[in-house]
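Field reference: sequence -> structure
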Amino acid sequence: MTLQRVLMTEGTSLSARQTLTALGALASPDRQFAIDVMDPNALCQGRFSRFTRRWIRCPHYARKPEQFLEFLARQVASGQYDVLLPTHEQVYMLSRYHRLLRPHIGIALPDFQSMDRMQNKALFMRLLQELQIPHPESRIVRTRDEL
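Structure field:
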C-alpha cells in the first residue's frame, strides 16, 4: 500500500472541501491519503471531513502572510509530508516563494510570472486579446479623468 501524506494550505473554502472529497474518492486498498489541513479557523469545514487526519491551526493567510509563509515552510521542512496542496489564493503567494518549499515537498505550481498574468485583471485582458478569445468590452483606466 502506498501512503501519500498531503498537507492542504487551507480548509475553509468550498475548493478545499471538494479537494478533500476528491482525494478521499481516489483512495483504494493500494493507495491511501493521510491529509492534514492548515487553517486559522477552528470551525473550518475541512477540519470535520472524514478524510482529514489532522487540523493544524496556522496564521491567517490574508492578515499575516509573512507568518503564514514561515509557518508553512516549517511544516514542509519537517519532512512529514509528500505533497503540498494549495487549494485557493495561496497559490499566488506560493508561486512567488516556491524556492522555499520545492526542496522539501512535491508541489505543482506555475511560475510567478504566469500566475501574475492570470490574476492581474489588466494582464489577463491583454492575454485574452492576444489569444483572440472573446471577452466583455473593457478599457484600462489609469487616471480619474480617463474614468
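Note: The chain has five helices and four strands.
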